[in-house]
Backbone:
């Protein structure tokens, strides 16, 4: 059967969209094996930039800071988001709409405004800038995403399951631990990974809330623009891409295994 012209147009636009998304990623991986010191000129195959990366103390320290702050802010955002989602889903209370509006406010306010506001608060409170202020700043950005995602997931739960657990003698904590949290596990994991990703790549808030010895990886890479980037950055990007693919693959394998177990049952 002949395809309608619009189908050809749609297919072509989809291919262009995929090329726009994935060609830069492929280019980063290929150029990480570039022997030249210029990121845009191919000078032959070499793995020396991975060796340079392994011995770059500043980049590795930035990676460590970003990982610690990302894990801390993602964990706190997921925890607070879960508690807020539970409160929002369990019933009506005065000020519920206002609370949702306050939660969503950081999504509407430009990050540079949030950064200036947070820095002002920290200075007025005489708080030393460091891991704590970085984590709080990233938490402010992550919390709205966590609340909105988990509130939506919490709303899809069947309330009769919790009621059945209570009828069988479970306390509120047992219902939460044995029923609610296992059912919410995929949403909790997705929320944590999203918040970690947002925190890991944040530049604006990090600029205002980082202190001495707590320069994140994006800020470190951004500062390298002054002296010129080398394929070492491509090597770093390739390592991060590979780590991300491993996580996606692990999650996919787990979901496939769960589906197979469900089909057998």
Residues:
């Amino acid at each position: 059967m002949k395809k309608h012209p619009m189908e050809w147009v749609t297919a072509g636009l989809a291919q262009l969209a995929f090329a726009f998304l994935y060609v830069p990623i492929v280019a980063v991986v290929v150029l990480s094996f570039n022997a030249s010191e210029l990121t845009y000129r191919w000078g032959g195959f070499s793995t020396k930039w991975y060796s340079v990366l392994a011995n770059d103390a500043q980049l590795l320290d930035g990676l460590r800071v970003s990982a610690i702050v990302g894990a801390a802010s993602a964990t706190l955002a997921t925890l607070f988001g879960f508690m807020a989602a539970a409160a929002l889903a369990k019933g009506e209370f005065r000020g519920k709409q206002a609370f949702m509006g306050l939660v969503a406010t950081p999504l509407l306010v430009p990050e540079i405004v949030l950064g200036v506001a947070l820095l002002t608060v920290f200075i007025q409170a005489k708080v030393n800038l460091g891991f704590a202020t970085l984590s709080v700043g990233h938490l402010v950005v992550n919390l709205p995403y966590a609340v909105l995602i988990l509130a939506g997931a919490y709303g899809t739960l069947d309330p009769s399951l919790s009621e059945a657990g209570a009828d069988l003698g479970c306390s509120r904590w047992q219902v939460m631990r044995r029923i609610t949290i296992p059912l919410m596990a995929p949403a909790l994991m997705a929320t944590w990974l999203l918040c970690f990703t947002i925190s890991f790549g944040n530049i604006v808030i990090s600029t205002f809330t980082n202190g001495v010895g707590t320069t994140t990886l994006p800020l470190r890479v951004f500062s390298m623009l002054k002296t010129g980037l080398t394929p070492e950055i491509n090597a770093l990007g390739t390592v991060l891409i590979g780590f991300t693919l491993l996580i996606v693959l692990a999650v996919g394998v787990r979901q496939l295994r769960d589906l197979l177990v469900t089909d057998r049952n």
About this structure: The chain has a mean pLDDT of 85. The first helix runs from residue 5 to 31.
